[in-house]
Amino acid sequence: MRADLHMHTVYSDGELVPAELIRRAKVLGHDLIAITDHVDATNVEWVAEHLVRAAGLGDDEIRVLPGVEITHVRPARIAEVAKTARRCGAAWIVVHGETPVEPVEAGTNRASVENPDIDVLAHPGMLSVSEAEAAKENGVLIEISGRMGHNIANGHVCSVAREAKADMVVDSDAHAPEDLMSEARARLVARGAGLTELEAEAALRVNPYKYTAGL
Ligand SMILES: [Zn+2]
Ligand SMILES: [Zn+2]
User: What is the mean pLDDT of the chain?
Assistant: First the structure.
């Protein structure tokens, strides 16, 4: 049992075609992944439609969800891009949150957690408690990131999500083969971020399946 709901392919800045990403994930024991390539208003239709085809490469052993990661889109336009992604078949919508290592526009976290159409706020950096509370209210998962750089704020994100009782998820944000995370590696990222054993269990083994059950 291993899920990873934030991964990239050559359809944005990843290194692998979907078939290889899926194969490598399967070999590492994954049974659920979402492929979430970067989109803005200019490529969202193209990426979503291609990832719907990629999802067709899944099988009985591994479920593959077609997704997108809405990236550096102005906060006021995030809802519109999310709607377009849904219309083109995206089942899983991640927003590229206010990571400490990129100049993501302020207001991106807020626009994401207030929109029930968004599934995951990725690497949200200095997330506030009120943003985490809105995430909980709107069913938006808060990501603990396995990606170097983005993960600088993981400890803060964990404590704020805990305070707001918002659900967390641990994702690799893989762009290359070596970024994929085994169960043990994902658990280390969770525990290193400060999640308790119970919280890590929920983030790794409960929430990914619960939140994707109806898709
Ligand atoms: Zn991102
Ligand atoms: Zn990403």
Answer: 98
* Helices within 56-202 (DSSP H only): 78-87, 108-113, 129-138, 154-164, 183-192, 197-201
Residue 45 pLDDT > 90: yes
What separation in Å is there between the alpha carbon of 57 and the centre of ligand 1?
24
Ligand number with the minimum distance to the CA of 6: 2
Flag whether pLDDT at 185 surpasses 90: yes
Q: What is the pTM of this model?
A: 0.98
- The CA 3 to ligand 1 mean position distance, Å, reads 17
Residue that has been written with the tokens 């590229």 in this structure: 96
Mean pLDDT of 2-7: 98
- Ligand at shortest distance from the CA of 124: 1
The predicted structure's pLDDT at residue 1 = 85
Going from the Cα of 149 to the center of ligand 1, the distance in angstroms, rounded, reads 11
* Beta-carbon count within 10 A of 206 CB: 14
Nearest ligand to the C-alpha atom of residue 37: 2
| Amino acid in position 56 | G
